[in-house]
Write a structure and sequence with these properties.
Mean pLDDT: 86
Radius of gyration: 24 Å
Low-confidence stretches: 471-496
Bound molecules: zinc ion
Number of strands: 25
Largest sheet: 12 strands, mixed
Strand content: 25-35%
CATH class of the largest domain: Alpha Beta
């Protein structure tokens, strides 16, 4: 099918190719058969599963419950949505939005609910109430418990060095691990040898930035100091608050401490961008990198993951399917983009870990500032890479790089408090995430703490984007005198 598509593209029958591609784009989540559209349903001819199309947006998420809203959205709320999207609040727009917010969506996973609610809160049309973890925390009656469910500590580390590694914990008890009570919970690590002899604290204890409710997870950076003597060690995690200490209930992590460490993956060697851009400029840099890749590779069909109501790839010369889990904002976005005359973008409500597309359906995929929201980013990349052509590319754009120490910044704190799975990875952690997903960096750029990477499958050659995709602005004196950069870049920000 793909060779036929490419032949049609090459012969100039692009519209026919598009029609063909779109016709059997979606797959059944249960049996994998192609879905056919009948009215407002996508139907599977094999297992008879049906998936709704709501306001033009296919909804293909397992375990998603869609019910009538307890009360209709107010006129003022709907008008504020129109303002937020810059569209006129005429009767057609209000009617559409009334339909969109006349339903409530509930996801099986609380992180998805949290993301959805947070967006709706920002649009002032929250329907499920506040989702702040501290507001939801209730003192339980059981004993506090936790487990380390994932960590990013390499199996081998050099001796007598400092490094920071993410550790993901899960509250496995019935008691919330509160941020405030008992002085707040802290994560500790201790070194032991194979015989269990204790070598003391393995680093600085990490304070939990937010409360962790029962059965929820949180990633915390752990600042580690390795032992000075090489050898086989075990790392044992515990948590403490107010003199109370609990073990993590899992086997210790085995680690080799060596004089010299060899890695089985390539380190990221990013081109460092010249300025500290603001959010919008940073995204424009990412879009420019992508545009060059799309033109160089002749890619025609792309998947954007997590673009919500503001997909970044719609101005690329390609057909785009923008997927996210917030069904309502996608429905609003489809309407807004339709009004603006965008014809190359489709919106679908899907989970990146459970994609309803056939293998190799896309020439490329793009993720802007969303990869780090996945509990298991490597699993998300593996899933996305399945639906991209073997010689295609994945663009991971504008991901926050580098750990926070002591406390996250106020923006990160706020989203954490909303229950969103916010986390930051170091460049080394990103390199290992990409490697374990079977991908390698073909181009890589770092603008302040914003990482942008074009990924190819291991063993596939892609044209590299060099020299840097952004060039220093010619009007700026920053380049002539590096010492003026700080004041100069902050001046750029205030004038922007
Ligand atoms: Zn089926």
């Amino acid at each position: 099918m793909d060779s036929l598509l490419r032949l049609l593209d090459r012969l100039g029958f692009e519209r026919l190719a598009s029609f063909w591609w779109n016709w059997r784009l979606y797959r059944c989540l249960k049996c994998g058969e192609g879905l056919l559209r009948f009215g407002d349903q996508l139907s599977c001819m094999l297992c008879r599963s049906e998936f709704p199309i709501v306001n033009g947006v296919p909804v293909l998420v397992r375990g998603l419950r869609m019910t009538e809203a307890p009360e209709p959205a107010s006129e003022a709320d709907l008008q504020s949505v129109c303002r937020a999207f810059g569209i006129s609040a005429d009767s057609a727009a209000l009617e559409h939005l009334r339909g969109v917010f006349g339903k409530v969506y509930q996801f099986e996973h609380h992180f998805l609910d949290a993301e959805n609610n947070y967006l709706l809160e920002r649009l002032a049309v929250a329907r499920n109430g506040r989702s702040s973890v501290d507001a939801l925390a209730r003192q339980g009656t059981g004993a506090p418990r936790f487990a380390v469910v994932r960590h990013y500590i390499p199996a081998e580390l050099p001796c007598a060095t400092h490094s920071s590694h993410n550790v993901r914990i899960r509250n496995t008890g019935e008691e919330p691990l509160m941020r405030y009570s008992l002085g707040g919970w802290q994560l500790h690590g201790r070194w032991r040898d194979a015989d269990g002899q204790d070598f003391g604290e393995a680093g600085r204890p990490s304070r939990l930035p937010v409360s962790v409710l029962p059965q929820r997870e949180l990633t915390v950076p752990f600042w580690m100091q390795t032992p000075s003597a090489p050898g086989e060690y075990r790392l044992v995690f515990s948590m403490s608050a107010g003199g109370l200490e609990i073990g993590d209930g899992i086997a210790p992590i085995g680690l080799r401490i060596s004089e010299r460490v060899t890695r089985d993956y390539a380190a990221l060697a990013p081109v460092v961008g010249p300025l500290q851009p603001d959010y919008d400029e940073d995204h424009r840099v990412g879009i420019r990198m992508m545009e060059r890749m799309v033109r160089m590779t002749g890619a025609r069909r792309g998947l954007e993951i997590g673009g919500s109501s503001c997909p970044m790839t719609t101005n690329l010369p390609a057909e785009i399917v923008n997927i996210d889990i917030d069904a309502q904002t996608l429905q609003v976005a489809r309407f807004v983009f339709g009004r603006r005359g965008h014809r190359n973008v489709a919106f679908a409500c899907c989970d990146a870990l459970d994609l309803p597309f056939r293998k190799g359906a896309f020439d490329f995929a793009a993720i802007f500032s969303s990869l780090h929201h996945f509990a298991d980013p490597a699993a998300a990349l593996r899933s996305v890479s399945e639906v991209v052509q073997p010689d295609g590319f994945l663009a991971v754009m504008c991901e926050p790089a580098g750990h926070y120490y002591d406390d996250p910044d106020s923006e990160m704190q706020q989203v954490l408090e909303h229950g969103i799975n916010e986390q930051r990875f170091t460049l080394d952690e990103y390199a290992r995430i990409f490697h374990s997903a079977g991908l390698r960096a073909a181009s890589c750029q770092l603008d302040h703490d914003s990482l942008k990477v074009i990924l190819a499958r291991t063993g596939v050659e892609l044209p590299a984007i060099t020299p840097p995709a952004i060039t220093p602005p010619t009007t700026s004196p920053c380049d002539a005198d590096p010492s003026s950069r700080l004041s100069c870049s902050s001046g750029t920000e205030t004038s922007a």
